[in-house]
Amino acid sequence: MKQIILFFAFLFTVNQSHSQENLPTDYLSKEFHKGRREAFRNLMPANSVAVIFSYPERVFSNDMNYKFHQNPDLYYLSGYKEPDAVLLIFKENQGTGETYNEVFFIRERDPKKETWTGRRLGIEGTKSQLGFTAVYNGRDFKDFPINFKKFDKIIYDKIPTDLNANQTGFDLFGLLQSFKTKAGITTNDNTSLDLFADITNSLREIKTPEEMELMRKTVKLSCIAHNEVMKAVGPQMSENEAEGIHTYIHKRYGAEGEGYNPIVGAGANGCILHYEENNSTKIDNQLLLMDVGSEYHGYSADVTRTIPANGKFTEEQKAIYQLVYDAQEAVFKICKEGTPLIDLNATAKEVLAKGLIKLGIITDPKDVKLYYPHSCSHFLGLDVHDKFTFKGPQSALKENMIITVEPGIYIPAGSKCDKKWWNIGVRIEDDIAIKKDTYENLSADSPRKWQDIEKLAAEKSTFNDMKFPKI
Ligand SMILES: [Mn+2]
C-alpha cells in the first residue's frame, strides 16, 4: 500500500512540476479563435449575449467514457478542448471600470483527477494559451453577476436534456442548470436556435487561410492512407484490417482520429450506404468501397475510393466506375463561385441517368434514384457534414467554401437489371475548395482514374511485409 501511495505521490509531483512537452505546433492560433469571436460578435443583434456550451461526456462502458470530442462551435470560437465549459460572448462591453465582452467558465484544475484522467488547461492555461482575459472556474458561473434578463436576445444552441449531475455539481449539467435559472428558461425554449445557426453557419461555411491549411493537411494524409491501402489490399485481407491501415496512417501523421466512422465495405457491403460493421473477414475478388477521412486538429477529410481487391477491374466494374467518374468530372466543371448549390446534384444525376440508360440498367431517367439514392455534395470542415447556409435555389457556392463531390452507383443483388451488375457499388468522393473562377481538388493526391488505380495497386506496400505471430 505504501508503495502505491508513493507511486501516486510521484505522479502528483511530476504532474505539478511539468507542463506537457512535444505537443503539435500547428494548432489554430489564439488569434484565429479571437478573430472568429469578433466575427461572431459582429453578426449579433444589439444588446444580446451568446451562450455556447461544451459537448457532454458520454458513457462507453461502466465507468469509461467515449473519448471526448468538443462541440465544434465552441472549439471554433475558443480552441478549448475539454468538457464542462461555457463561453459567453456579449455584443456590447459589460461591467464598469475594467469592462469585458466575453467570459469563459472552464473546467477547474484538480491535481488528483489530473493524475488519472489527464492534464487540464485551467484558468492560467486558458489565459496564456488561448488568449482569454476573463476566465473563471465552472463553479463560479452560478453566482457570477450576469443579469440575462436585461438582454433583448439570448443566443444559444440546443440544450441537451438527458444529463445527470456528477458529484461536483459544476459539470455541464450544473452549468446548464445555472444558465436556465439565471436566464429564466423554464421549458426548452428554442426560439434562439435559428439565430445561433444563422451566425455559425455563415461563419463556418467560409474557411479562413488557417483553416484551409489544416484542411489541406487532413485531406492530404487521408489520401496517403487510401493510396497505401490500394497497394496493400488483396483478396485475403479483411475489411477490418483495411480500415486499420487507414487509421494507423492517420495517427502516424498526427491526426487525432477519424472525422466519422470509417466505411470499408466489400462487394455487397459496398452497396450499403453507411455500412460501418467492416467485419467481413475476406474481401475476396470484389470491389472494396472505402469512405474514410481523418480528423486533424478538429478538421475532417472525407475521401472515398473504390478499388478492385485483386488489382484489376472487371469489364462491368469498369463500366460503372467510369460512369461515376464522368459524373464527378461533370460536377467539378461547375465548381466555382456563383454556381447554385442545387446545380451540383442535378448535374451528377443527369450524367448518371444517361449512363445507366446507355448501359441498359434503367430505361426511365427517373429510375436513377434506385441506384443513386443520395446527393452529390455536402460542406466539409470541423464537421464532416459541415454547417452552411441554405436559403433556397438562389444559395450558391462562394470562394473558400469546401465541399465534397461524391456521386455513386450501388446495384445490390436482386436489382431489376442483368445479374452481371449485381453487387457492384462504386462511390468516388473528393474534397473541393471553391475559388472565384475554378476549384482546387484537395484530394488529388489519391488516384481516381481506374487506370491509375490499377497501376498503384500493382505496387507493393510496406504493410505486405509485416509479420505478426499467429493466435
Ligand atoms: Mn461525404
UniProtKB/TrEMBL annotation:
The keyword Protease applies. Residues 28-170 form the Aminopeptidase P N-terminal domain. GO terms for biological process: proteolysis. One of its GO terms (molecular function) is metalloaminopeptidase activity. Pfam families: AMP_N, Peptidase_M24. It is an enzyme of class 3 (hydrolase). The keyword Manganese applies. Keywords: Aminopeptidase, Hydrolase, Manganese, Metal-binding, Protease. Its EC number is 3.4.11.9. CDD domains: Prolidase (cd01087). InterPro entries: Aminopep_P_N, Creatin/AminoP/Spt16_N, Creatinase/aminopeptidase-like, Pept_M24, X-Pro_dipept-like. Its cofactor is Mn(2+). This is Xaa-Pro aminopeptidase. The lineage of its organism: Bacteria, Pseudomonadati, Bacteroidota, Flavobacteriia, Flavobacteriales.
